[in-house]
Design a protein that fits this description.
- This protein is mainly α.
- It has a single domain, classed as Up-down Bundle (Rhopdopsin 7-helix transmembrane proteins), CATH 1.20.1070.
- The chain contains twelve helices and no strands.
- The relative contact order is 0.13.
């Protein structure tokens, strides 16, 4: 095996292991903080953060560990098992699409709250948001199933179809959120005593999550363009694992964005960490010492 390929495979394994533990821990902390705080659960935007964090948790716990197995098979030159793992890695990518769908619905909820507040208060509910999310999940699941083993279409083609359907409204929504956030940020700077009618903090949370997604998705776009012409080369395989690994990192970075932008959520997370720390140290102190 080429030494450069070997080093990249080792590094990919290390990165996936690190993000498995950090992603599981951070997303679990976000979920626990939101479930614990009745104040946070009242807002629809926080409910969508809870939904997104649940999908991010599943994305991390399925994708990063599952990437490590084929990498190990590649390192040990067990190519038969490597090719058998392709279908499982492909199916695990469903959860990455689920996380994106949840982020799209969360951004849509914020868009309605900012531009159509009366309609948002009277007609937008948790059930309707979940219904919209379910439609997107069914669409993405159908594309993944039809592209598994290239049954009907290829995986890059499925990604392109889903992107064409979902990215235009996603870009439009986030552009409108950016415009309104800039507008009211300037107004607040001129008149600090004047209260804004839009929730700038939650809008900025959506925008940061969207920016993180777009930045990390660049690697996936590079893979799709490259894989369409070089599907059988070693470089294409490495590009595939790098693109997948970096794309799934978004599910970890989302939790950091939520804690950074939400002071109440951050405070709840600190309380849980202090409780966990006290429980662990109390358990260690209560363990009897064995004397010889």
């Amino acid at each position: 095996m080429d030494q450069k390929v070997y080093i990249q495979l080792i590094f990919l394994c290390i990165v996936n292991i690190i993000f498995t533990f950090s992603g599981v821990f951070l997303n679990a902390l976000v979920i626990a903080s939101l479930l614990k705080s009745s104040l946070l659960r009242k807002k629809l935007c926080n409910f969508m953060i809870l939904v997104l964090s649940c999908f991010d948790f599943v994305t991390v716990i399925t994708n990063h560990p599952l990437f490590c197995l084929p990498l190990v098979f590649w390192l040990t030159e067990n190519y038969d098992l490597l090719h058998k793992m392709e279908i499982y890695v492909h199916l695990a990518s469903m959860f990455l699409g689920f996380s994106f769908s949840a982020l799209l619905v969360m951004s849509f909820e914020r868009y309605l709250g900012a531009y159509h507040p009366i309609f948002h208060r009277s007609s937008v509910s948790k059930r309707r948001l979940l219904t919209l999310l379910a439609i997107l999940l069914i669409l993405f699941t159908a594309l993944v199933i039809t592209s598994a083993k290239n049954v009907v279409i290829s995986m890059p083609q499925a990604a392109i179809i889903f992107s064409v359907i979902t990215f235009p409204p996603f870009i439009f929504i986030d552009y409108k959120l950016y415009r309104i956030s800039k507008k009211y940020s300037r107004r607040n700077a001129v008149s600090p005593q004047r209260k804004s009618r839009v929730d700038l903090k939650n809008i900025s949370t959506c925008l940061l999550a969207a920016a993180c997604l777009f930045f990390l998705s660049i690697t996936v776009g590079v893979y799709i363009a490259f894989a369409l012409y070089n599907t059988s080369t070693t470089n294409a395989e490495l590009c595939y694992f790098w693109a997948k690994t970096i794309a799934v990192m978004n599910s970890t970075f989302n939790s950091l964005i939520f804690f950074w932008k939400n002071k109440v959520l951050r405070a709840e997370g600190m309380k849980i960490l202090k409780t966990l720390k006290g429980f662990l140290f109390q358990t260690e102190e209560s363990m009897p010492t064995v004397t010889r």
